[in-house]
Please model this.
Amino acid sequence: MCGIIGYVGEKQALPILIEGLRRMEYRGYDSAGIALFGPNGLQYEKYAGKIARLEEHLVGKNYTGTWGIAHTRWATHGEPNDNNAHPHLDCTGEIALVHNGIIENYATLHEWLQRRGHKITTDTDTEILVHLIEDSYDGDLVEATRVALSQVEGTYGIAVVSRNNPGLIVVARHGSPLVIGRGNGENFVASDVAALLRHTNQVIYLDDLEMAAITQDKTDISKIDRTVVNRDSEEIEWSLEQIERGGHAHFMQKEIHEQPTTIVNAMRGRLNLDEATARLNGIKRHLDELGQIDRIIITACGTSWHAALIGEYMIEDLARIPVEVEYASEFRYRSPIIDPGTAVFVISQSGETADTLAAMREAKRKGATVLGICNVVGSTIARETDGGVYIHAGPEIGVASTKAFTSQITVLSLIALLLGRMRSMSFLYLGR
Ligand code: GLU
Model:
């Protein structure tokens, strides 16, 4: 996992970028770096190791500037060392780029760029991106980024800045989340909404193959193929307090203690006591279809997959519908049978789990109605599924899932109850 944060506005960018990196530290990383533009031109630093090491190197260097980008790296190509850390620069040192993801065809592009005289100085797959942009750059950073990305295969969330385009951050995403934060006279970008919460709760999630030109007043979104995208910002309901440890030794401990509240939150307003059933607005539109199905597939990864196994028992017990639980990374690579009587549920805390996203898209491609169970409002799974149920657990920062797991099970029990009632199960056999 890795992190991107970018800022453009009136304030000094450095403290905002460093704080943003710290907010994403929980995701794990091996290096950290920053690129800042200001009166002193482009200033950048990048180091293997902790953010504290980056900060040590910033002491006494007059880093002023109101516009910049920063990154925490989790190396996939090239060992974690200072040179391979992001940002990466083009040959002229005027364009800087940070990247989350993997460029699959980097070796071919590397060779091509070298033939064209580019000097590639790191072992990463990422560096070729900034040279590709340089290769077609004629003053229009958005256009050059578009051209570069149209040659690339793989996954990316990127943020790019150029000395010649003051106050502009170009961002793009394919398979690696990016969210724009909208402020007053300032704008932000991050790979994780937690990095933005201190500054704004107005966010716009980018979809795959979308890019944006972010200035202090504007966030112009388009598809990489140039189609204009109009998307309003949405409000994040999470508070800053929710992403702080609040006196606990670590986030996992805090989240374990939150469970009495989060389980209630997962059920709040969802029990119809008069009819002894569940009321789930997010799947209401699909109740007719769900009344017809004779099979359910639940697909997920990791802890969510374990929640799915419990969901299987509950749904089969209460609704008598056969359920298969599939590991999302397997599901996407085999040829699952999905007929009109099959409903597919996908479960992911973040709503961004790459394998689960791919499984969801595969199920949709095969014509299934796909319903999501996730935590992060507005996440890719929440947006791309046909409907779904939020677990409302609040931000889960601890890497080992705790409260999200129990909330997923709570929601699955509500789904089992609803499906059972729809099928007029009397539940008299319960406990037999
Ligand atoms: N593939 C890139 C690298 O190894 C980016 C890794 C990341 O997502 O942090 O540098």
In short: DSSP finds 13 helices and 22 strands in the chain. The longest helix spans residues 403-422.
